[in-house]
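Late entry, written up from scratch paper. The run itself happened at the end of the previous shift, but nothing got recorded in the book at the time, so transcribing now.
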Amino acid sequence: RAGAAGARRGAAAKAPIARGSIAMEREVKRCLRESLKRHGLSLRKQGLSAAVASIENLVAKFGTSVEVLDLAERLVNVIEDEGVDSCVVDEATVAAALKKFDGHGVAEAAGRPEEGREKVVTEGPNATDRGGRDDDKGGHFTLVDAFGKLRSSEGFRSSGSCSIGPGSMDEGLGNSSSQQAKASAEDPCLAQPLGWDEVHGKFVKKSRTRCMLPPASSKVALFRERYFLLRRRVQRNANFLKPALENVTAGGQSLGGALARAGSQSWCELAEISALLGCVGEQKLILCLISTVDHDDARVVVEDLSGTVEVDLSSCHFAGEGYYAENMVVLIEGQMQSSLIFKASALIFPPLDEEAEETEAAVAGEDAAEQGDRIAFFSDLTLEDPDCLKKFSKALARLDSGGPTTPRLVVLAGPFLSRPAKNLACSAFASNAGDRLRSRLKDLAGLIKSDHPALAEAATFVLVPGPEDPTPLPRTLLPQPALLSCLTKDLEEDQGLKMAFASNPLRIRRGGVGGGEIVVFRDDLQAKLRRHDLREVRLRVLREREREEVAVAGNEAMAVDDARKEDAGDGDGFRKACSTVLHQSHLAPLPSFSHPIVWDYDQSLWMTTQPDALVLCDGSGGVEGPRLERVKATECLNAGSFSSAGSFVVYDSRNRKAEAMSLSL
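Output as recorded:
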């Protein structure tokens, strides 16, 4: 449609917009900025204008046979091939890239899909071509699990159901090379393992492939790459870019324009830990990883690429919302003491990327409802509880309106068993968990098909395992693979139901590559973050000292009261957990002994850009009902406990609006 911009964050729209129009320019700028952000680059104003003009010319030349987002991605790749020395590309490099880009690979790609492009998996119920993008009016979703597998049209059987693939252990964990080849190269956290390249200032693919038992060096690389990921985000933040004309003044007026700010230091300069020894008593700002937290005396040690230092947090102000724990990357401001201890005055998370420019909404109101891009989220769906199944049937009846508001995806998060499986090598064999779950899944499928046939035809049901559901790996390991195929084989062969079995976490993309992304993660994250929070550790140590030294408890009691006041104002636990995850760009930024991670698959927990929606199915916050929050540009959702409170959440991926629902118990 004329002026259609689609979803706010990168819907892969065609280009039926008139060349030279304002809408076309906005669309090209949006796609180009999204591609640059994925590669960690940015262009100056002159280079950006030239790049936008070049893409507009190619759109006018090839028409709707090419996509704006594809052109933007190709241009960014050509710019990288020219050689990039920093995250801000200079005009000379852009000019050289544009000379090679005019017609570069576009003519060959016009009229045919790009090889390796993600395919659509969930479309309208009446769609005849499941790989198309324009023939039906329904929403398009791609499911990407933590092991690099895509739920594409090839995953559907003749019945339309979707599965993870063959049931062997290796393929179930994503070790099949043919399946991994389908993963998009544009997603560094989901494709082949990546390593940081200091020369080019970007992540590059490693030569070796992923494995479940990687070498010991992979554990070190895990934390280094997390550090590089956040350092890159900090370096492209406006507060950390040195103004070109900061100190040039004339007649008392600054000549730096918008680049110069008031004060002697208008930008934040990062210092390395090794340089602190020569700056005793000076106020410095460091970007570091919290490497060690001693829970006995609240001793904290941080490190960066140059060295380590002990930090005194006794008088530190914890700025912003979030939990601060071991293995997190933080910004610490303070002074180095003569005792070689860094006395911190403030601690904060690395800033998030600036919110993307809002695009003009071309589809609103009734037009948006016609797209049917709605997703329903349920958590703690206990299939062994008859009352829970009755409530679930009532909830499906509310969703099964038969109109455009019918959800296209229904995401069901575990645990699915009332008696959880214990921590064995394979939890499917604990307490007959596998047999019990197989039987209950059959009952679930029968309930959906018999009581809600229209919804069974229109929607795809996606099952995400809970922390204690039977999977090929121990329940404590992340990422968590999908349920064993030996338990889901009957549902895969079902002719009347579309059902997909996903990993934990799961990513849902709207529109394929570059489209809006929804991240789903099932874990009791709030309780774990609160347990390891530095403020909780400090308060706990002060309380112990107060009890041990009753005679001199006056000052200690005052310190405990101050710490308690600061902790009392820590606000909403769910909002803090969402803020922590987004600022760390990681779904489980916790100590390895608390949340073990398969080293080679740590990147599947990354969030290189802010998702449109973050769904944390968390039942540990003490509130069983649903929760809706907004952190910067991300909608944060918690479906609540369906088995306890009968609550769930419906999310409109096109309008980016969520609605909390509940049933009377």
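The longest strand covers residues 283-294.
(Scratch paper discarded after transcription.)
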